[in-house]
Amino acid sequence: MWTAWYVAALSVVAVCGIPQETNTVLRVTKEVLSNAVSGTLQQSDALHSALREVPMGVGGVPYNDFHVRDAPPTNGHQLGGNYKYGHIETNDNTAQLGAKYRYGEILESDGRIRDLGNGDYRNAENAYGSHRGHGRYRSAEGAATMGRLHRRELRPGEIPPGVATGALGPGGLLGSGGMLAADGILSGQGGLLGGGGLLGDGGLLGGGGILGVLGEGGILNTVQGITGLRIVELTLPRVSVRLLPGVGVYLSLYTRVAINGKSLIGFLDIAVEVNITAKVRLTMDRTGYPRLVIERCDTLLGGIKVKLLRGLLPNLVDNLVNRVLANVLPDLLCPIVDVVLGLVNDQLGLVDSLIPLGILGSVQYTFSSLPLVTGEFLELDLNTLVGEVGGGLIDYPLGRPAMAPRKKMPELPPMGDNTNSQLAISANFLGSVLTLLQKQGALDIDITDGMFEELPPLTTSTLGALIPKVFQQYPESHPLTIRIQVPNPPSVTLQKDKALVKVFATSEVLVSQPNDVETTICLIDVDTELLAMFSVEDDKLMIDAKLDKTSLNLRTSNVGNFDVGLMEVLVGKIFNLAFMPAMNAVLGSGVPLPKILNIDFSNADIDVLEDLLVLSA
């Protein structure tokens, strides 16, 4: 019975329909969450998954809008855009600068195209209501009178009559043959805008000139010509966490990214500092597990350096590449946060796993309510279930609540300045563990002569020296068996700096007769008080108890009444030297602590408070 306790085995605990009661509370600071994320990044391949080629055409839909927007149309030829390098959507003709309409056509505000030469508008010849060919002119006075009588407001897009027949007319400033026309000083061969001119092709500021680098094939277009971008290195991020009361956490990952790529002017070597920020909400899913869910993720770019084989590119191109990466990197780096938080969520889910409590049962921690987020810590309320192998729960056998009233979980003390994790265990939980041991008979023991060298000989002669009636009935020495049983669950009381365990046991004294016949001499009730001490080893709470005092009561006797006080010394030795080592051997297997966020309580400070055991690490 005693040695079997060391064998590990799993058991199935039915938890459906069990009231959610908090008997264990875990508090963690932002440092614990930060370490959990950092550890996950180190141990997982989340960063390695980001070392890949940047897909062409990404960046059209912001990361935070992917669930509400449709993907934009793209031909995949431009990084973050819809047009391939060197292609600009031009107008249907070049008759008018910057528009796709013929000379004399005006786009109305309602979207219609009006022709200045149709019947709705006067043409240049009859602008004043007469024909130039007839040579009829008015004096200035008459013209002024006519203008005042017939003046009207111009329609949208209408060219004033004087301008239509003057500057834009044949021979006018902008008309055919005019100074600014095709053959004028601005556009003619050798003109300001013409071939070889100041701004023309081959000119000082034209294509191939000083500012030609900003035109087609120039530096300005290298961004649109970037291809084959590939993330080749991603340093281990520096993680920082800020708690958002009532919401969750604000997560920041600072990293350096190295990207290689190609452009029209050579191979690119891009180094950029990135700060990935995410607002994360703490929720609970339908199964009752807490989940960290990203509400928004952004990337802030720091120092960016773009190198070519010929050296550093100008700051202008740095800014252009910066805009492209700002559009692309969220789609590539924010999924890393998704992966990491998914792994952290898996760690939170481990709390619910069944943990063997020897071969007799198991311990299972479940979340009893939505975690609490304050500005100082994250608090997780746990309901610890202790179950028997193949049976029901200890606290609620066969689904019926225990009859004895249970104390509520007391308030936790404030966390110390140097404390990052705080685990509070109620006396109810500790009592459930001892109840499991009692129900499975793990606290029962038969003690025979010679089993423990420290005890005096357990014979009728030894007992007869204390109680003469035993010697009278058994003049010859016969071996004795002391059968100790614990019929009721032990109780645990936690007080300031003191943990007390009360165990009620019965001690039956039997004498062995020839032919293996055992006869009861007496049955004694033994009330014991044990002092419990706690430690942590291998993620388990270790309990070590020592006998404080005993109280005896004679229930039955087959040798007549006697003063049971005469047996106090002997019974005290039996309990202290036999029962307690056996009980501590059982407790030595330890009580499993919740496995969550890689918290280590091995060197924790342990405080015993009123109805509460607190571990601080």
Q: What does this entry look like structurally?
A:
It is a single chain. The chain is an alpha+beta fold. It is 18% helix and 31% strand. It has eight helices and 23 strands. The protein has helices at 30-43, 140-150, 161-165, 315-349, 427-439, 460-466, 468-473, 568-587, and strands at 24-28, 105-107, 113-115, 227-234, 238-244, 248-263, 266-284, 290-308, 311-312, 354-357, 361-367, 372-373, 378-388, 421-426, 445-448, 480-485, 491-495, 498-513, 517-537, 540-557, 591-592, 605-609, 612-616. Strands 1, 10, 11, 12, 13, 14, 22 and 23 form an eight-stranded antiparallel β-sheet that branches. Strands 15, 16, 17, 18, 19, 20 and 21 form a seven-stranded antiparallel β-sheet that branches. Strands 4, 5, 6, 7, 8 and 9 form a six-stranded antiparallel β-sheet that branches. Helix 1 (30-43) crosses helix 4 (315-349). The chain is elongated. The two termini are 36 Å apart. Mean pLDDT is 75; it is low at 1-19, 57-61, 66-107, 116-151, 202-222 and 396-403.
Count of extended strands: 23
Please state roughly what percent of the residues sit in beta strands, choosing from under 5%, 5-15%, 15-25%, 25-35%, 35-45% or over 45%: 25-35%
The biggest beta sheet, please? 8 strands, antiparallel
Helix content: 10-25%
Coarse shape: elongated
Number of helices: 8
Could you say which structural class the secondary elements and strand pairing correspond to?
Answer: alpha+beta
Radius of gyration: 45 Å
Uncertain segments are 1-19, 57-61, 66-107, 116-151, 202-222, 396-403
Instruction: Determine the mean pLDDT.
Output: 75
Question: Roughly how many Å apart are the termini?
Answer: 36 Å
